Structure formats: C-alpha cells, structure tokens
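## retry 2 of 3
previous attempt timed out at serialization; input unchanged, resubmitting
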Amino acid sequence: MAKNKTTETQNSVTDFINAVENDVKRNDAFELIKIMHEITGFEPKMWGPSIIGFGSYHYKYESGHEGDAPLAGFSPRKTAMTVYFYLPEKEREPLLSKLGKHTSSKACIYIKKLADIDIETLKEIILLSLQYTKKLYPSK
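## retry succeeded, writing output
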C-alpha cells in the first residue's frame, strides 16, 4: 500500500508563511491561523511541505487505505488560499452559497483573499467540518 505523502512535520509554520511572496495572502494566512486555532483549539502544524493543519484524526477506508490527516487545514497557494473541509453535499451547498467570492471542489474552498468572503460563514463551515469529521472518525 502506498505511503501517505502528506504527514505532519516539524517545519516552522511561521517560516513557511513568511516565505509567501504576496502580502495579502501572507496576512490572510496569519488571520486564518487565528480563526482555525480559535475554532479547533489546536496549534498549527505543517503537514507536508505546504499545508497548515490543526489537530489530527485517523481514517480507514473500506479499501483498507488508512492514515492521518488534519482536522482542519489550509494552504496559501500561489493562485488562491485553499481551505480544506469535509461536509455532506446537502449541508455544504447552502453554506457555500452564502460564503461570497470563491470557487470550490468536493473538499476544498479556493479564496483569492479573505476580504472577498463572509468570515462568519467560513467559520461555520470550518466548525461543521470539524464536527462532521470527528463524528465520522471518532478517536479511540
């Protein structure tokens, strides 16, 4: 079975964010750290080379594939801030429609800058995603 590429590292979150060239994206990353820390209660950690994660959970799929992942996380990518989340479609669509200017995929929200979105809606998405993930993958 393949080894997970995205695992928690000891790399510095602050150093990683300070290396982000775009001032707005760098400042937004520090703001997202505050938001996610407040919601999760966990300190930020680097996962792989570019994901900032908060807390962790262990998953195991029916296929037998298993691993660890952050309960909440984001990455200040070059084109957009990527916020990772996990919600059933029926719950996610009403929230995403209130979020503001963004694009999304099944498990990611792409935001150019935090000023483009409703922060309270983002906080709700992060909190519900955290609760849903903990329910799906309870700690043993």
